[in-house]
Amino acid sequence: MGRILFLISIGLGGAAVLISLGLWQVQRLAWKEAVLADITARIAAEPVALPDDPDPVADKYLPVAVTGTYADQAIYVLVSQKQIGAGYRVILPMQTDTGRRVLVDRGFVRLEERDAVTTPTGEVTVTGNLHWPQEIDRFTPEPDLEANIWFARDLPAMAETLNSEPLLIVARTTSLPEGPVMPLPVDTAGIPNDHLQYAITWFSLALIWVAMTAVFALRGNRRRPERPNS
């Protein structure tokens, strides 16, 4: 009997821990959904003028509208789009009408259409969002400068190469035709939200824990068959 009580206490204790972890993930899910909703609202807000000294934390995703002219330079960042395939993000420097030189992520072009990309001439107004991408890690290859192929949006390095401020505007719309370049606006798709899967995992483990405890308890409760008298 003592062994059965011990198994039950272990089973209930372990299940309680696993259930508490699942409930914590449910709370984290609600928090993350609120954060994503706030970011989505910020992204879609009315654009403002480019701040004089934008902050990478407070002004991340800030919608802005800038007017200026593109410089005839470009950086091509290798990326892949679902249902489309491989291609490049096209990054250009823009000389704004206020005298600043910033970077604009014009959007995506397919691999085979890179040679068809031209730099729009004349004044252009870009509406988009400020972004400070965090895409560099120790596994990111160095850019192939000869072929002008980059493997991540390394904002400081791109700004140095294109002689601009380390400030990136991801275009949502522009006043001029973009040709083969398709804008890739900022959204929340790249922000992970796996808390529901984590919660399901913890609750499933709790159920398995209880089931295994019941199996061991039932086995231990069985009486051994009596040996026949010799």
TrEMBL record:
The record's subcellular location field reads: Cell membrane; Membrane
Q: Which residues form a coiled coil?
A: none
InterPro entries per the UniProt record, alphabetical: Surf1/Shy1, Surf1/Surf4
Q: Where are the transmembrane segments?
A: 199-218
Instruction: Give me the Gene Ontology terms describing cellular component.
Output: plasma membrane
Q: How does it sit in the membrane?
A: Multi-pass membrane protein
Q: Which PROSITE patterns match?
A: SURF1
User: Per its UniProt entry, which superkingdom is the organism in?
Assistant: Bacteria
Q: What keywords were assigned to this record?
A: Cell membrane, Membrane, Transmembrane, Transmembrane helix
Q: Which family does it belong to?
A: Belongs to the SURF1 family.
Name of the molecule in the record: SURF1-like protein
Origin organism is Pseudosulfitobacter pseudonitzschiae
